[in-house]
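Re: [ENG-882] Designed sequences occasionally contain unexpected residues at chain ends

Forwarding the minimal case from QA. Structure tokens:
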């Protein structure tokens, strides 16, 4: 995303390596919509187009899928990342709906160590996917973000028992077999899927969440608000669709 002298909205949740770097470097911080947003310099890894096999390997989860689509959006996200939740509420949820019949929208996992419930949430989404309900769990996690991701004071929660109780409630609401859901959450297959997403994200130059790619190129907004970022993303999508 943009360098430190550019858009204050761009960098959100950071990897542990970036956080350590931030202790040495000056990191810009801005509060937008009540969410603490971070930014740092380019990782240097994703300057150009990222190969499709890195961004979208076989069996990747898609929110929307259009055969022979001219546009593919890939988002690397962390379900407990406050900025991911804000992007969802202000940008990507509506993008998913408005462009449903025109683009393929791929979701990849990139849980960060700074968010203690990010990996359990990713396992919940992947376990739901094992029963064909990934999209439903993805939406449940973000639509009900406050119920599991933050504590009573509004800070990042580390209460795994509370979160798991909510994940179970979501699973029941979307019609999952609860025993299978639990088994899949703890399975090696689910853990390997998440690790694969993280490895691919690292290869693509992802170091914060959310990070989006449009047809292999990292989306790097220069806007100062979510509304303006939404306009920039839609402009890129429309341009790619019309090309």
């Amino acid at each position: 995303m943009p360098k430190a002298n550019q858009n204050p909205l761009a960098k959100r949740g950071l990897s542990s390596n970036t956080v350590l770097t931030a202790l040495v470097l000056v990191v810009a911080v801005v509060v937008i919509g009540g969410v603490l947003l971070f930014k740092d310099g380019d990782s240097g890894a994703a300057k150009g187009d990222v190969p499709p096999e890195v961004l979208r390997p076989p069996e990747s989860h898609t929110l929307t899928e259009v055969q022979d689509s001219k546009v593919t959006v890939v988002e690397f996200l962390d379900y407990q990342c406050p900025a991911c939740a804000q992007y969802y509420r202000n940008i990507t949820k509506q993008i998913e709906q408005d462009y449903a019949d025109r683009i393929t929208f791929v979701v990849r996992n990139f849980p960060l160590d700074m968010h203690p419930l990010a990996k359990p949430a990713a396992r919940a989404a992947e376990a739901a996917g094992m029963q064909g309900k990934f999209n439903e769990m993805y939406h449940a996690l973000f639509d009900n973000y406050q119920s599991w991701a933050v504590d009573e004071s509004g800070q990042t929660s580390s209460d795994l028992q509370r979160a798991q109780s909510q994940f179970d409630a979501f699973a029941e609401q979307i019609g999952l077999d609860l025993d299978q859901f639990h088994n899949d959450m703890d399975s090696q297959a689910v853990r390997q899927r998440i690790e694969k997403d993280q490895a691919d994200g690292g290869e693509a130059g992802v170091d914060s969440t959310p990070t989006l790619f449009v047809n292999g190129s990292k989306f790097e907004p220069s806007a100062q608000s979510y509304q303006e970022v939404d306009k920039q993303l839609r402009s890129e999508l429309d341009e790619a669709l019309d090309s």
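QA comment: On inspection the terminal residues look reasonable. The CA atoms of residues 38 and 135 lie 28 Å apart. Proposing we downgrade this to a documentation issue.
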